[in-house]
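Comment thread on ticket #2218

A.B. wrote:
> Attaching the input chain for the structure job we discussed in standup.
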Amino acid sequence: MGKNKYENLELDKKAIKRSLKQLKKTPGEKLEKILTQKNLEAEAYQTSQNFTLFINTINKISSKFFESYEFEKAIKKLNEIFSKNDPGFTDSQKNSLNEKMKDLMSDLFYYIPLDQKMEKEIFESLRNASADSPLYTSALISRLAFENLDSDTLKIISSELDKLLKTHFDYNAGQREIADYYIRLLSQEKRNLTTEELSQFLEHAKHCVPLHEMIDRMETEISKHSSLEKKEKTTKPKTS
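C.D. wrote:
> Ran it. Output below, let me know if you need it in another format.
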């Protein structure tokens, strides 16, 4: 028993000496790697905590909308989460957050009877979204989906979404929502699209994956517009 204990002690000493020798060879490099790993772990943990916080806040907002109808408090919370800067989420986490926010907006407008005051408050919160916020693109897309925009605002939102890289998680959703906005004008305003509006639709519809389902019909429409414009030019009487 005593002998075994002594032998184990000797083995432990040898192991410690080997470790010390290894550290002496590259102490700086070893320490740097350890510290870097620790920092990465700490950052990943903090990002995970922030992500959980964002998800929980969105869930609370949703709960307030559907259970208690406390719209003012919900809008205040919505503004708070939109104003937060990007805390270093991964693309996958950003995608999850944006999808959750867009689903919340859809449920809100489709299932809750909103009066003008409520709508105004919601759109105001979406307009106040910071460009640095991880939820910025979902705010832009939600405005396209539910707000009646003037032509200048539509151009600004389209321009912001066009700036996204094609690899961005919301690029395709943005292009499709812009194209859908022009299609909704047909039914909402009960009028034909102008040549400029048709061109804008086609520009964004062609970037959708898969291609927008209305693209063939709208290409036919723009051909008709072009033919009519040419005909008008040729039949227009000359002024002396």
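A.B. wrote:
> Thanks. Noting for the ticket: The mean pLDDT is 80.
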